[in-house]
Amino acid sequence: MASPYDVIVLGSGPGGYVAAIRASQLGMKTAVVERESLGGICLNWGCIPTKALLKSAQVFEYIKHAKDYGITVGDSNADFNAVIKRSRGVAESMSKGVQFLMKKNKIDVIYGTGKLKPGKKLDVTDKDGKATEYSAKHIIIATGGRARELPAVPIDGQKVIEYRKAMVLEKQPASMLVIGSGAIGVEFAYVYASMGTKVTIVEFMPNIVPVEDEEISKELAKQYKKLGVDIYTSSEVTKVDTSGSGCKVFVKTKEGEKTFEVDVVLSAAGVVSNIENIGLEEVGIKTEKGKIVTDDFYRTNVEGYYAIGDVTKGQALAHVASAEGIICVDKIAGHHAEPLNYNNIPGCTYCSPEIASVGYTEKAAREAGYDIKVGKFPFTASGKAKAAGAPEGFVKVIFDAKYGEFLGAHMIGYNVTELIAEVVAARKLETTGHEILTAVHPHPTMSEAVKEATEVAYGEAIHL
Ligand SMILES: Cc1cc2nc3c(=O)[nH]c(=O)nc-3n(C[C@H](O)[C@H](O)[C@H](O)COP(=O)(O)OP(=O)(O)OC[C@H]3O[C@@H](n4cnc5c(N)ncnc54)[C@H](O)[C@@H]3O)c2cc1C
User: Fold this and answer.
1) pTM: predicted TM-score of the whole model, two decimal places
2) What residues does the Pyridine nucleotide-disulphide oxidoreductase dimerisation domain cover (predicted)?
3) Catalytic residue positions?
4) What is d(CA 394, CA 355) in angstroms, rounded to the nearest whole number?
5) I want to staple 87 with a disulfide (CB 3.0 to 4.6 A). Which of 49, 96, 147, 183 is the partner?
6) Is 267 in the pocket of ligand 1 (CB under 6 A)?
């Protein structure tokens, strides 16, 4: 058995590697175990490579509309393989960055597949099948998640694919049907549609991006229709026949049964946690509805074992995983740690137009019994948005009418994922609408729309 550690983290995604760095910063002897690439799904197969693909798609869109900006360009083409190559290069360089951080923070990286054992131990089996036992005072489980497979739509990795394959297809499909319109589904729909693939989205819920405020969903549906994406909501894929050259997809829609012939089906119906075969049962760690059960400081029911990130019940987002990792380790080290407020987690979708939101939707605020003030400012009235050639979308803010509490904000438009942090900070500081009204925002910026929407909510609009 190798010498004991203070902390071993199983999994090196944004939960695991951030927790490891914090542990090392706090003077703990730390190791991280990884079976694949440092940085986890986020850096290698999630947040980062998708954003690289989206940027290529956006550049292509710009070029297609260059004339609108007074620029003439010749014929342009999206070189699909070059776009994929760029995305993989960005992911690889980010993973190397984590490698550097591990070295800088003197964290041991143990490559192999880890399995927990009782007594705060774990076995790591390397690629040659050799198992080594390690032990630590604290073991943090951060094994993340993978694509959910729908029983009616088995993923074959060729014609019915999940997000990983969608990032590395050898050839651009002429047509694609995307199942699910959460962040992953609509981001890929945008990438492929803007590069010329005929995209159809099938969503089970009544609106696309179903967790968002209804007005946001409607605006995105409007913009996607302009892009040529066909959308079927309140619809369900019942079967995919892959026996022919492409896929024959059977869909139960509001108007009855429909059949679609497409090259490829992208199953983007959410993620499930990697909690199988990691030794949870042997150690006696409790799970519930496919997630590891923890307290507010990510302690499981077994002393010395913790769980963070996509294996726990919080939102499956990179920044949530990292925040949980920091809180977990601070608590282990005996530092002050505050439980995370899961109602103040921003959610961003990087399609075009972008979506960003935090806090209550209008419907949820009403259902929670709040008397609310709502303000909406369209980007058609924003000088910066007009100058950028991006007047689509709006910012919507929701305040409690009685005390002015900032209950939520919902944005759709150019670069709005950069605007939401203001609202997160405002909510964290328990800012009221009046303080937003008197905080001077720079002109011309997209961020002015947050203040202007607040002016609308308080009946003080200048530019509407
Ligand atoms: C296509 C896509 C786009 C996304 N875009 C965004 C985005 O823009 N913003 C955002 O916030 N979130 C995004 N996400 C979600 C985000 O990637 C996850 O929430 C985040 O990666 C979770 O971090 P984690 O540390 O819990 O686990 P992961 O990042 O999943 O990392 C877990 C790691 O553990 C390793 N592992 C698992 N089991 C073992 C084992 N037994 N032994 C050794 N190693 C093991 C895995 O190889 C993996 O490297 C996206 C996800 C996808 C799929």
Assistant:
1) 0.97
2) 345-453
3) 443
4) 10
5) 49
6) no
